[in-house]
Amino acid sequence: MFSEEAMRQALRHYLLALQFFTRIPVTGRLAAWVGYSPDMLRASSAHFPGVGWVVGACGVVVYALLYLGLGAAPATPWVAAALSTAATVLLTGGFHEDGLADVADGLGGAATRERALEIMKDSRIGAFGAMALVLALLSKISLLALLGQPGLSPALAALAGAHVASRFFPLLLVRSLPYVSDSARAKAKPLADSITAAQLWAAAAWCAAPLAVIALGEGAGFVLLALLLSGACSALLARWFLQRLQGFTGDCLGAVQQTAEIAFYLGAALALGPLV
């Protein structure tokens, strides 16, 4: 099916994506073997949901250990939700949260396209960015705590599914909108230049297995409603970016990932129905 060389190249691309989107070090001889070029970074975008496997696994392990270790105390789901969220943020270095904050500052604090793009390049966080970060973190923690109320399984399923699926929707943005950042020095430029249909299919393949397992355990409605809300929110953001920016920037990709993740948790919670 796949040649040995193709498998090695796919592994290189995956490790490059892992290095780019997380704080997991790829150094020394391994880094030399992986290599780097803008074309390789562009190809690594197909493995973005695969990075979600690692980030989601980190969140799942932390949530499960705390949930089981703390016992049946009323605050247990809240502690597990807060610290599992903190663990995933630490693992990614807040990479996508930073994009969300920049987009909120740019589109919330500017009336013109040019001024919005200028604000989004500023590394300092403003009032809109701070509000967006606080609301996003509160939403994640609240929804994960809610999902943990009926038991451990729904929360773990939502964590795993959200971190994988939410990393697919930014790739659809790359496929459908033009990249409008003028900066050749932008870190995301090779990733954002373009994405092929084959890369999208590869990214979808990363999503298929975990979502199928979750559907078997929690029901198809759990996954379908979560994906529906994630997709709808991503589409609304894409339309907003097109209206305000005539395209997207690297920060917009982070904003889409964060919004899709929160929407996935919300859809999963709604699929469970009333808990009282």
Characterization of the model:
The chain is mostly helical. The protein has one domain. The chain is about 75% helix and about 0% strand. It is built from 14 helices and no strands. Helix 4 runs parallel beside helix 12, helix 5 packs across helix 8 and helix 8 crosses helix 9. The longest helix is centred in the C-terminal third of the chain and has 26 residues. It is globular and about 50 Å long.
Can you give me a brief rundown of this structure?
The protein is mainly alpha-helical and 276 residues long. It contains 14 helices and no strands.
Mean of all residue-level pLDDT scores: 91
Give me the strand/helix succession.
HHHHHHHHHHHHHH
Number of helices: 14
Q: In percent, how much strand structure appears in the residues?
A: under 5%
Percent of residues in helices: over 70%
Low-confidence region ranges = none
Query: Over all CA atoms, what is the radius of gyration?
Result: 19 Å
SSE blueprint:
Elements: H1 4-21, H2 28-34, H3 38-44, H4 48-70, H5 76-92, H6 95-108, H7 113-121, H8 127-147, H9 152-165, H10 169-176, H11 189-192, H12 197-218, H13 220-245, H14 250-272
Could you list some keywords that capture this structure?
276 residues, mainly alpha, 14 helices
